[in-house]
Structures are given as structure tokens and as C-alpha cells.
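pipeline stage [seq->struct] | target=Aminopeptidase P family protein | organism=Methylopila henanensis | residues=604
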Amino acid sequence: MFEAKFQTFDETADPSQGAPRLAALMARLAAQGLDGFLLPRADEHQNEYLPPSAERVAWLTGFTGSFGFVAVLADRAALFVDGRYTVQARTQVDPSAFTAVNVGDTPPGEWLKRNLKAGARVGYDPRLHTIEGLERLEKAAEHAGAELVAVAENPVDAIWADRPAPPLTPVVAHDAAFAGETVESKLGRIAEELAKTRADALLVTDAHALAWAFNIRGADVAHTPLPLGFALIPAQGRAAVFLDGRKLSNAVRAELESLAEVAEPAALDAALERLSGKTVRVDASSAAAAFGRRLEAAGAKLQRGPDPIAKLKAVKNAVEIEGARAAQLRDGAALCRFLAWLDAEAPKGALDEIGAAEALESFRRETGLLKDVSFPSISAAGEHAALPHYRVTRASNARLTPGFYLIDSGAQYEDATTDVTRTVVIGSATEEMKDRFTRVLKGHVAISTAVFPKGVSGAQIDAFARRPLWEAGLDFDHGTGHGVGSYLSVHEGPQRISKLGTTPLEPGMILSNEPGYYKEGHYGIRTETLVLVERLTIPGAEREMYGFETLTLAPIDRRAIAPSLLTAEERGWLDAYHARVLAEIGRLVDADTRAWLQAACAPL
């Protein structure tokens, strides 16, 4: 009945190959006179989603998560993952070849200090390490009396016989009707930011920043409409864009050439060398070390600091905000159709995780406007839901059985990017499960109703979501929220709600609100909506105050709630939210879904 067009459920890596591939890598390193190699999961743009040709960590180790770092030494190898992936790493990686290490407990630098031997020469690919990241590793090597050595050829590529070719998908224009601002205006604002810091030029290596600044999109990576390339934007003069010409139609090339010089990516090195004596703004947290070193060798001065495009991109304009609202209505209607269907099908006992994910994607495709999913759906039943970033495969696919089912999914439309999670009850939930679900809900409401003054960052409100869990001795190991792009990355910085979210929140920023709870081996819970930072008018206020407008519209399962744990204010928020869902989504769906909505959105 349903099928997936934008996601697959095949296992893409083979952990059984970890040991022989590690042995082949060690032999290659020995031939190059190296005692080890450091391999981050990254490409030259530090993308979250990588083209298949850059999935070196997955090919080498079997680990398919979005964050990973491999350290290979003569006598041991480690795979570093964060708290989202500790369980996944144990199931995907051969422990006889790679030891999984939680990066929160032991960062790679600390591990290297303990395990590097004096005099060791450890290789690295300077195109894959950021300037800041490499400096931390170099300090660790120096502490151990070892040396890090840049390699001209990545040794993993040398042994990866069937490595896919780099992507070559068409670059397309992102219409101003969706972007809300012309390229000329954006380049002017970027130049103004450069003038403030007295920089002569900005090196753009982040493909998201490139896409935003020049109003272009592509399909070089999965689920994020990115064209991979680079740019140099001067404070004065004409910008330059470095894109593979085979990706450019005559029309797109002509449009770009009316705004900037267009050259091949291979021409970037020569362009950097021509910046001798210039001050070049470089984001050391995302720019590859290779580019920083090329600039320094050319005699340019590196001005290290955040890429100004990131902040400009994060604050959505009026057109993008209206696009987000429109997309949330469209996406909410598709999601509610799915939830109504799920409520009817799941109790029959035949539905599995893949079938549910295929159904939701199909409901979204029926809008006629879906460009892609914004990430592979996390369709997780039972104990699988306890893995925050579980990805269902044909090997892991499980039936939806009584208990909790978690579906975390999103869509790419030309007017917006969406991301939403709902945890629903199949059959019945235990009292413990209801307690945990309600504590997550209380945290969700606390963020939704937060009021805060200008200048407050996500780190300062992250605890709002955790307090109900903390009171029961519980917590979750991921951030409460991430920024979201506009037909770009579903995970956008610099804004976020987390312990590390130090960027002040500003009106126009879109973030997720997604506290959770995970009981390993049993069940998982997450409730996620997208929110928009907005200005508030508070009588008598002495400071500029902000709050959140909730964008996502879909019911929160009332059957999983322990009403006695909610305050009157929390109950009031939930009832008002459900009344809004019914009013705004009810008019967009068929009669059967509307009838289901009326029950799902009834006052608690």
C-alpha cells in the first residue's frame, strides 16, 4: 500500500569487515612510515549528512551514526561517539577491532595523551579536520611526545576499492518567493559584517552558508538540499563561487555569473594564494585545517571567528516565517492522517517499523510538495525507542507491539524544513511509562511557555525541560533543542537549547523543543515540536522580552498522560494547544481523520 521514495532501510555498513579493513589500513600506514591515523566522520564542509564517498568511518568500522571519530594506533583503535550513540556503537562495531569510547567521558585528545607513544608519527587528512579540532589534537600529541603528520592522500581512500564517486547533482536556484531576500541584499549584509571586524574577505566552506548566501540548492547529500562548493566573499568587490561546472545549467550559471565569479573547486587554492597581505575571516570551528594553512602559507592573516552567515541565516525573515507556518499546516495534516491511520492499524498486530515509516512518508508525498524527508525517520517500537537516534533497517525491523511507539520524522518543502516527534501508546502503558511520559511533557510545556529577556541563550533555559525529570532522579543525554533551517539543514546552528547553547536567542530563530526519556532495553519517549522565537509585549516590562510561538501542530497522546502530575497551568496549555490543532488541522483533513482528531484533541 505504501512505499518510501526518499529513504531506504538497508544496512549500509558491515561490522564484520572492521577487523580486515583495520588490518589493511595498518599495512597502508606502515608503508607510509606512519604509526597511526586520525579519522573524523567528516567531509571538507563538515556536513552532518555526508555523500557516500565521504562515509569513511562507516566503511571502516561499521558505525553509521552522524557523529564519530576514529583513532588508530599501532596496538589499538578506538571509535569515539557521543551519548546518543553509545548503545548503537556497541551493536554495530566489532569490539575486537575497535573499542567504543563515549566522547563525553574521554575526549580524543585525552585518549591520545594516554595512549600515544613518544616518537610516534600519526597521520591525518587536513581536509577533514577543522582548524580548532586539529589544534587540540596537536597539543595532545605534543604532550605525549608524538607528532601529527598531514597526508596528501587519505589512506582509507587508498584501500577502499569500491569507493563511490563524489556527488554530481544539479545546482538549482532557490526562488526569492521562498528565500525572501535577494542575493545582492545578502551579500551586502555579509560585507557589512566583515567591515565591522575589518576583514577583507570571508572564506565560506560550509555548504549551508553557500546555499543561503547565493540562493541556491542542490542534492549532493541526502535529505539536505545542498550543493557542495566554496565561496570567497570580499568586504568590497565581487564575490567568487567555486562549484563543479558540470552541476550548472546554462541558466543557473548565467544567474550566478551576474552576481559573482564562477570557478571550479580546484581553483580555490590559487584564489587563496592571491590573498597575501589580506585579512581573511575564517570560522576555525568549521573550516578545514587545509584551507587555514594554505592562507597562512600565502601570507594572509587569519581572522578567526564565527562565520557571520550562520547568524544571518538563523534569523528567518518574514517570508521564511510565513513559509514555516504554511509548511507546518501542510505537514501537520499529513502527520495527523498518519496518526489516525496508525491508531487503527497498529492494534491489529501486523504493522512493523518500516511499514509505519513508509506510510508517513507516503502521506507527506501526497501533499504534492514534498522534496525529501529531512532525515531518515526514527520509527522505533519498544526497546528500539530507547535509542535516541535509532535507524530501522530490514535486519532490525520489529513489529509494533503493546507499549510505546516513537516516530521522529521531518520533511523538506521549498518553503520550510520540518521536524516532529510523537510517542504514542499501542494498547496500554504502565504507570511508570505514564509517569515518565508526563514528566517529559511537563518539560516540553516549560520550554513552550518560557519567557526570557533579550540576551538569554539556550543554555540558560535548557534546565527548564529537565527539572521534572531531575526531580525523579532522571535525565536525557541529548540537547533539548536544535536550530532548524529554511529548506536547509534540519540541524542548524548556532542557536540551540542545550547545556552548550551559548548563542543568545533572537526573534526569527526556529528551534526544536524535544525533551525525552530513555529506559535502555525497554522503551523511549520524546515529544518534539518546532518553536519560533518571538517578541512579547508585557505591560510594565523593563526589558525587551521574548518567548516562543509553537509551530508544529499534532496531538500529544492523552492516553500516555498521568493527569495528576500536571499543574492547572500545564493542563491549560495542553488543552489550548489541542484546541488549536483541531481548529487549524481539522479543516485540512478528511472526515475520518477529523473525527479521530476530535477525540485525540478533547480536553484532558
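stage status: PASS
auto-comment: The two ends are 35 Å apart (CA to CA). The chain has three domains: 15-159, 172-313, 315-599.
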